[in-house]
């Protein structure tokens, strides 16, 4: 059994560079860390995996990954714990790392597929929030997630980890201009609803049946929300009622509730 042992080798350094956006942009690749992310990639997008690395101990523990890699004809390279630590973005990697191709979907293709529920993220800057919104979109059965050019990089390692594999379950587009995205949503027959504290009460919209319509939810920046220009593009704005003493809700939590409200209404 051959094991890659030198954490300073050019190959290891090339993988480690993918924690930086400049390297991801230059190569069109990104980093996958941990058995869960690799498992979902092998199950749903094995063609995207370029390289797969694991420590012998981790590979012994995950027989399902061994089977999935064999089924997908993805070759594994064994590495030491030191090499894996040099490659990974996390302080305590879980023994498995992969390099994958970036495979975003175009905005045109997303709306050409007649979606009924879409999440649009405008200037979402926190990687954990973005990853959680993608995970929530997946959980609610949304058809796609659209990221504008002002939103954090989809392939940031923290975003990828926060999606827990949902990145491979539904189409995600990147770099779109918000006005163009909203225009395409309207052309596809979706209403665009902004989640905003200055909006109308979501419960009233629920009572009138508005959330049963095909909907693109628009979510803004964690600190500032949506700018007036962005709000003006939406058909309406809705806010979640707060019944307790909390000052506000975390963006990803609010987005999850909004997406589930639409999912419930559309399935009623």
Tally of discrete structural domains: 2
Q: State the CATH topology of the largest domain.
A: Alpha/beta knot
User: In order across it, which strands form the biggest sheet?
Assistant: 8-7-6-10-9-11
* Beta-strand segment tally: 11
Organism: Microbacterium azadirachtae
Domain RNA 2-O ribose methyltransferase substrate binding: 31-106
Protein name: 23S rRNA (Uridine(2479)-2'-O)-methyltransferase
EC number: 2.1.1.208
Main attributes?
single chain, 2 domains, Alpha/beta knot, 268 residues, 60s Ribosomal Protein L30, Chain: A, 6-stranded parallel sheet, alpha/beta, 13 helices, elongated, 5-stranded mixed sheet, 11 strands
3D architecture notes:
- The protein is built from 13 helices and eleven strands.
- The protein has helices spanning 10-16, 21-27, 35-44, 56-61, 63-71, 81-87, 107-112, 127-139, 157-162, 178-187, 202-207, 228-233, 251-267; strands spanning 3-4, 29-33, 49-54, 76-79, 96-101, 117-121, 144-148, 172-176, 191-201, 215-219, 236-239.
- The chain is elongated.
- α9 links the parallel β7 (144-148) and β8.
- With 268 residues, it is of the alpha/beta class.
- The model has no long low-confidence stretch (mean pLDDT 96).
- The protein folds into two domains: 3-101, 2-Layer Sandwich (60s Ribosomal Protein L30, Chain: A); 107-267, Alpha/beta knot.
């Amino acid at each position: 059994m051959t094991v890659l042992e030198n954490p300073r080798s050019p190959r290891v350094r090339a993988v480690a560079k993918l924690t930086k956006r400049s390297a991801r942009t230059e190569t069109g690749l990104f980093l996958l860390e941990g058995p869960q992310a690799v498992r979902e990639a092998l199950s749903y997008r094995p063609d995207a995996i370029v390289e797969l690395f694991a420590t012998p101990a981790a590979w012994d523990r995950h027989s399902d990954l061994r089977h999935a890699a064999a089924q997908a004809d993805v070759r594994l390279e064994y590495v030491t714990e030191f090499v894996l630590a040099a490659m990974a973005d996390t302080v305590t990697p879980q023994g498995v790392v992969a390099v994958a191709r970036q495979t975003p979907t175009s905005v045109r293709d997303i709306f050409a597929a007649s979606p009924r529920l879409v999440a649009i993220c405008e200037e979402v800057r926190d990687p954990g929030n973005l990853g959680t919104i993608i995970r929530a979109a997946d959980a609610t059965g949304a058809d796609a997630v659209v990221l504008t050019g002002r939103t954090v990089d989809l392939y940031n390692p923290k975003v990828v980890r926060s999606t827990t594999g949902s990145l491979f379950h539904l189409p995600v587009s990147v770099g779109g201009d918000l006005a163009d995205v909203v225009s395409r949503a309207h052309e596809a027959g979706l209403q665009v609803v902004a989640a905003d504290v200055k909006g109308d009460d979501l419960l009233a919209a629920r009572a009138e049946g508005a959330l049963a319509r095909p909907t693109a939810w628009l979510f803004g920046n964690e600190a500032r929300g949506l700018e007036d220009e962005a709000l003006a593009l939406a058909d309406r704005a809705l806010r979640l009622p707060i019944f307790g003493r909390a000052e506000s809700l975390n963006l990803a939590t609010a987005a999850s509730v909004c997406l589930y409200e639409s999912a419930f209404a559309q399935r009623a």
